[in-house]
Amino acid sequence: MAGNLVGNHLKRPFVFPQILSRASERFNLPDLLALSDRLEFVYLRRRRWVEAERYPVFTLLGQSLGSVVLGETSCTVIHVN
């Protein structure tokens, strides 16, 4: 399952419809699959900043600060119309 996460370096091929299907089921969003042509997955290279393994001490603080870095990265990568 971890091989299908967008932020990971993928060991298995990326499967866009499978991820949408699982998200649709998990979050009870039946119309999500109909919007697939408007959705895009973006690889975020700084995802490691929110990984718990990166912070053996003060994990929550490190992940909180890392989420700011990741959020900044995601805002610069995604181009909103």
Account of the 3D structure:
- The protein has helices at 16-26, 59-77.
- It has two domains: 1-40, no CATH class; 42-81, no CATH class.
- The chain starts with 15 loop residues before the first helix and ends with a helix.
- The protein is mostly helical.
- The longest helix has 19 residues, at 59-77.
- The chain is extended, with a radius of gyration of 15 Å.
- 37% of the residues lie in helices and 0% in strands.
Task: Sum this structure up briefly.
By secondary structure, the chain is mostly helical.
Helical residue percent band = 25-40%
Beta-strand portion reads under 5%
Radius of gyration from the CA trace? Answer: 15 Å
Overall structural class, as computed from helix and strand content, comes to: mainly alpha
Identify low-pLDDT runs: 1-6
Mean pLDDT: 78
Notable features of this structure?
mainly alpha, 2 domains
List the helices and strands and how they pair.
Layout: H1 16-26, H2 59-77
